[in-house]
Amino acid sequence: MQQRLILKESLNAFSLQGVIALVRRVVLITLAVEGIGALILAIRWAQEMSWGKAIYYGIFHSISAFNNAGFGLEPDNLSKWVGDPTVNIMISLLFIIGGTGFFVIADIFQKRNIRKFSLHTKIVLISTLALNVVSTLIIFALEYHNPHTLGELSMSDKWWASYFQGVVPRTAGFNTLDIGALTLPSKVYMMGLMFIGAAPGSTGGGIKITTFVLILFALWTVLTNKEEINVFRRRIPKSLVYRAFSIATSGIIFVSIIFFLLTITEKGVDMSTLLFETFSASGTVGLSANFTGDLSPVGRILITIMMFIGRVGPLTIGFVLAIRSNKQSKIRYAEEKILIG
Q1: Pseudo-torsion of CA 120, 124, 127, 128, nearest 10°?
Q2: Which of 35, 84, 88, 137 lies in the 20 to 30 Å Cα band around 164?
Q3: Is 330 a domain residue?
């Protein structure tokens, strides 16, 4: 039971019911999606390399993309295929599918009707689509005249690069552009995307996109002076709102602590570079502003700790530590208000 409770938390499942079936479904979906992706990528790369190497590249990049690892086998990652439609579409589809979560994938296959989708699935799909479209346009606008990124590319390649680099930061660490050469506004925007991350129960990190959306809904509810959060004719319980704010707040606290410590260990390094590395680690994204390899030994340990916290989740760590002492308090104190805002 204890192991199932931990499994439930790590997969962000709603209840213990069906956890083992979910794990079985996760394995089957992973093998199927990665197999299809590896085959398509191998066929594409066989046009420029031997079949043996193409198959190896296909399998490696398919697994890396679906699991949002972002590892590539080329020194410049995927930069040589910056304008290649097959590579851009296939790699991005793999990490987007992996980043939407197994609950969403299973819901789509089982119901196959958008009207019957769960509220969770609707929020993940709509918010993911909106963020991807907006991010593509923002990267295109911010980097259009940058000679070190989009500036020297053809119009077609500009759009492919903008799309790929716009959808990558939330989940995977691939790149078709030199991240270190991006403008500061682009890096700042990417930090926000990396902090948001993927969907719950997925292969990506971050505070999760549903957490971010729920916080926005909660803020809108307060601003419009409403009592309850209603989305698609469904009421969201306040306990989830508290959890969302707790996850976001704890994420900000851990990022701030690691960033502060890095400013001590990595003296003389630009603050924006250190902050970018910290946000990338917190979302387990893997993007780097060309500085990760230059980290000091202590700095590498700090980034490793940040990656572990970002993937496992501050609340999950707390849950594991407190699992044996999770008792309901029998004392309820008198209420008293404090001034805020």
Answers
A1: 180
A2: 35
A3: no
pLDDT in tens, 271-287: 999 999 999 999 889 88
Identify whether 331 is part of a domain: no
Q: State the Cα torsion 130-135-141-144 to the nearest 10°.
A: -140
218-270 pLDDT tens trace: 999 888 888 888 888 888 888 888 888 888 998 899 999 999 999 999 988 99
H/E element holding 235?
Answer: strand 234-236
Residues of the domain holding 205: 2-325
Number of separate domains in the chain: 1
Average model confidence (pLDDT) across the chain: 87
pLDDT of residue 340: 72
> What is the residue whose two structure tokens read 């603050």?
271
339 within some domain: no
Q: Residue 204: enclosing H or E segment and its boundaries?
A: none
CA distances from 2 to 7, 18, 26, 118 (A): 9, 15, 20, 28
Q: Is residue 320, in this structure, part of any structural domain at all?
A: yes
Helices (H), the chain: 2-10, 19-45, 51-66, 85-100, 102-111, 119-143, 155-167, 184-196, 209-223, 238-265, 271-282, 297-312, 314-322
Helix (H, G, I), strand (E, B) or coil at 178: coil
